[in-house]
């Protein structure tokens, strides 16, 4: 293979990585080391070409080496400084997965940073840049958990095909994968926006006060139905899910109330326990 073809292949690889990066896509196997491997490949290829090329081409390859080497050293230092760890959680519905990139650092207080990538086959991931989670914990408040425990990774629960819920130390956190931008995840039903779901919940709360028997909504895999017994003059909310796989077990609850302190709409006075978080008040 001649020098020109090698350079074209090298430029093609670099261009692909740049375009993917700008679009928020990444080869997941490169994430632990960042771009150290591609930069090292560039440097090694240019080193070989410098010894095999004519004087004119050698000048250009050496110039490229002098640019890449500092980038390689600086980037290697940054990767070492970031010290990210990675965990993949597979969805029970299909081959879709979420990859969690996380780290923590302390400056009088401990900051935990979590980034999420959606992927189906584990090769290419799309950064969910609007779903990142950061939790800051004061030294006096620290519960003695590691980064996995702070987010509650071991107890993570897929509540829909596109939503995973974490019982984090600072309250439940949800990550919404949304419609696939990878073009590889086919969805059978449309994804409602947060505003639409909140509007449905608010309307349901009003219908509950009016005891409108049979009024139904679906939230995070659970079906909520208003029931009213006219003879007993009693009403309740019937909670069910297909195959009893929803995040809230099948039971009856009395009402939905917004809890500003927790940041959730809560189902209260339920059969199995007093309350269940239903949906965040907002994503902010």
Query: Whole-number radius of gyration?
Result: 26 Å
Low-confidence stretches: 180-191
**SS strand fraction:** 25-35%
Which structural category fits the helices and strands?
alpha+beta
Count the domains: 3
The count of DSSP E runs of length 2 or more, i.e. the number of strands, is 16
Oligomer: single chain
The rounded distance between the terminal residues' Cα atoms is 54 Å
Q: Portion of residues in helices?
A: 25-40%
What order do the SSEs take from the amino end to the carboxyl end, as H and E?
A: HEHHEEEEEHEEEHEEEEEEE
Structure, explained:
It contains five helices and 16 strands. With 284 residues, it is an alpha+beta fold. The protein has three domains: 80 residues; 92 residues; 87 residues, no CATH class. A hairpin with a 2-residue loop joins strand 10 and strand 11. It is elongated and about 95 Å long. The termini are far apart.
Provide keyphrases for this structure.
284 residues; alpha+beta; 3 domains
Summarize the SSE layout with pairings.
Elements: H1 3-22, E1 25-27, H2 36-52, H3 55-82, E2 85-90, E3 97-106, E4 109-119, E5 124-127, E6 133-138, H4 147-151, E7 157-160, E8 163-168, E9 171-176, H5 194-209, E10 216-219, E11 222-229, E12 234-240, E13 251-253, E14 255-259, E15 264-268, E16 275-280
Antiparallel strand pairs: 1-5, 2-3, 3-4, 4-5, 4-6, 7-8, 8-9, 10-11, 11-12, 12-13, 14-15, 15-16
Helix pairs in contact: 1-2, 2-3
């Amino acid at each position: 293979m001649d020098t020109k073809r090698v350079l074209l292949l090298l430029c093609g690889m670099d261009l692909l990585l740049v375009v993917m990066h700008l679009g928020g896509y990444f080869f997941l196997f490169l994430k632990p080391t960042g771009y150290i491997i591609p930069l090292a490949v560039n440097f090694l290829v240019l080193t070989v070409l410098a010894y095999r090329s004519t004087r004119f081409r050698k000048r250009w390859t050496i110039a490229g080496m002098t640019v890449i080497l500092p980038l390689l050293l600086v980037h290697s230092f940054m990767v070492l400084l970031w010290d990210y760890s990675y965990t993949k959680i597979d969805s029970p519905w299909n081959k879709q997965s979420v990859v969690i990139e996380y780290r923590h650092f302390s400056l009088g207080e401990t900051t935990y940073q979590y980034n999420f990538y959606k992927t189906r086959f584990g090769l290419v991931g799309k950064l969910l840049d609007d779903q990142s989670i950061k939790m800051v914990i004061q030294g006096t408040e620290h519960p003695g958990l590691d980064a996995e425990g702070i987010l509650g990774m071991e107890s993570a629960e897929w509540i829909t095909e596109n939503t995973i819920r974490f019982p984090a130390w600072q309250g439940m956190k949800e990550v919404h994968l949304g419609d696939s931008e990878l073009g590889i995840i086919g969805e059978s039903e449309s994804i409602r926006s947060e505003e639409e779901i909140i509007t449905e919940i608010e309307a349901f709360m009003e219908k509950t006060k009016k005891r409108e028997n049979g009024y139904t909504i679906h939230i995070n895999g659970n079906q909520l139905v208003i029931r009213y017994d006219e003879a007993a003059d009693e009403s309740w909310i019937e909670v069910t899910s297909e195959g009893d796989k929803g995040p809230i077990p099948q039971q009856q609850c009395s009402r939905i109330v917004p809890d500003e302190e927790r940041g959730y709409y809560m189902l209260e006075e339920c059969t199995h326990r007093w309350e269940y978080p239903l949906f965040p008040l907002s994503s902010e």
